[in-house]
Amino acid sequence: MSERRICSGSEPPDFVMCRPIRNLELDPPVDGESCEGYRFPGIVDLHVHGGFEWDFSYGDPDRIEKMLDSFLRKGLTAVMPTLITCSEEQRMKAIGDIVTVASRRTRPPSLLGISLEGPFISASRRGSHEERFLTAPNIEMLERWQEKARGMIRRLTLAPELTGAIDFIAKAMELKVRVSIGHTDADHETTLRAFKAGAQNITHLFNAMRPFSHRDPTCVSAVFDYRNVFVELIADGIHVFPDIVRMTFSILGSDRISLVSDCVLPTGLSDGLHQAYGRELELRGGRCTIAGGHLFGGGMTLPDCFQVMHEKARIPLKALCECVSVNPCRAAGVDPPREDVILDKQFNWIATRLRDTWYWPQ
């Protein structure tokens, strides 16, 4: 990955929305006369487990850096490492190694913090998380993890129906950890209690939660009823059917939604069978499953999902940009992105500018 300095007097990009570009006036490392595409103010993915043959839960700073460089080549400018439910030993190692990477990394994508998806989740809605590692909410455990993380844990997924979960929310907030409701079998009223106690986010809406009907209100209906939470939607068109994505946008509005990938280790590899997480996973056309079984996380990077969201879910470009740049930062409680990402008309990465440095394929 190469770097290039440009004049500090260059015109700033539009940081409000993506905009079409034609004949670039800046000094990027591309042919400005023939470039057509879009300029984004940053591309932020709040739900990333891994990709390109590695996973954040495995630790190893050098391997994490290599994985992040592969995500840069897709156009990502920031990610929130998300740790799957695992053993205490593995979690502590992963947290320490992620902190090491965050302290030394100078190029995008940056790390926005750490998100813990489990172990305080429902056994009946655990999805791909191993049941033997699940446990009831425990503030002493979170305190230990946050100390190891030097305050970098910013989000934690919680099933609010678990014993002690509602009281746990306020205690987590005191540790600067935002609670996200997910992997839950909670009903409508229990979810509302969690929101009123301070839960601020929803982990991949519709997925790993009890469906609702007109006679069975659940977490999903509570999200439609309560207007003060941020919502993740997996953007691959596989986890949530594109028409349902569009319907959700019409109900909630684009300002509450962050599009995410939920991508896992096989993402970015060739189609076929891959060994990961002690299992055999199959990647086919962006769909990642346990071989012969159900979905196992996402199989596409977030920028690879843009075309599906724009063309099949018919999400306007302005809304699409908000949901992968400003909204994720608002949901994470961090400053909005200040990068400059150039994508072509098919949303393939061309170049990224961070402050006065350009990154592009070599």
Q: How many strands, which pairing sense, and closed or not: the largest β-sheet?
A: 9 strands, parallel
Radius of gyration over alpha carbons?
Answer: 20 Å
CATH class type: Alpha Beta
Structural class: alpha/beta
Provide the succession of SSEs. EEEEEEHEHEEHEHEHEHEHEEEEHHHEEE
Note the gap between the termini.
7 Å
> How many structural domains are formed by the residues?
1
If you consult CATH, what is the topology?
A: TIM Barrel
Number of helices, counting only DSSP H or I runs of 4 residues or more: 10
Pick out its properties:
362 residues; disordered N terminus; single chain; alpha/beta; TIM Barrel; 27% helix; 23% strand; six-stranded antiparallel β-sheet; nine-stranded parallel β-sheet
Molecular structure report:
With 362 residues, this protein is an alpha/beta fold. It has ten helices and 20 strands. The chain has helices at residues 61-72, 88-104, 139-148, 165-174, 188-197, 219-225, 242-252, 306-312, 317-324, 326-332, and strands spanning 4-5, 19-22, 36-40, 44-48, 50-51, 54-55, 78-83, 110-111, 114-117, 153-158, 178-181, 201-202, 230-234, 257-260, 272-276, 279-284, 287-290, 339-344, 349-354, 357-359. Strands 4, 7, 8, 9, 10, 11, 12, 13 and 14 form a nine-stranded parallel sheet that branches. Helix 2 links the parallel strand 7 and strand 8 (110-111). The longest helix has 17 residues, at 88-104. The chain is globular.
Short summary:
With 362 residues, the protein is an alpha/beta fold. Helix content is 27%, strand content 23%.
